[in-house]
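Minutes, project check-in
Item: structure for the 148-residue chain
Input as provided by the requester:
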Amino acid sequence: MVTQGAQPRRVLIAKPGLDGHDRGAKVIVRALRDAGFEVIYTGIRQTAEMIAQTAVQEDVEAVGLSLLSGAHMTLFPQVVGLLRKRGLRRVLVFGGGIIPDEDVPRLKKKGIDEVFGPGTATSAIVEYLRKRLEGGRPSDNARKCDRA
């Protein structure tokens, strides 16, 4: 919810690489919009460069990356690197998709703040973003994933 007079938080949702499956990203876009965020969705098949440039142009506070193709260890850090190179050090970057549990700590070391897997409740992602963008940490319950 946005309080009266406050600007909504701006979040970019992007699909890097050649992954053409965007149903999950669209579900997140809708959930964030319903929760009062201003969401910019880039669509599928975006390069890391295109995502970073859009983040600059749209002056976002967070970038959510969705990927199912298995290229997350390459593409997610590329986006983080390009954002940092452009001076966007405070932009929160989070990811989601089909990401093996063992890759999550490595992604976090490379600048991805949080990773959400299949089965994560959209309310958990909304809670996570609200708390992180307000300067706090999401509750331990925010990352409830069914990683079957």
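Outcome recorded: The first strand starts at residue 10 and ends at 14.
No further action items on this chain.
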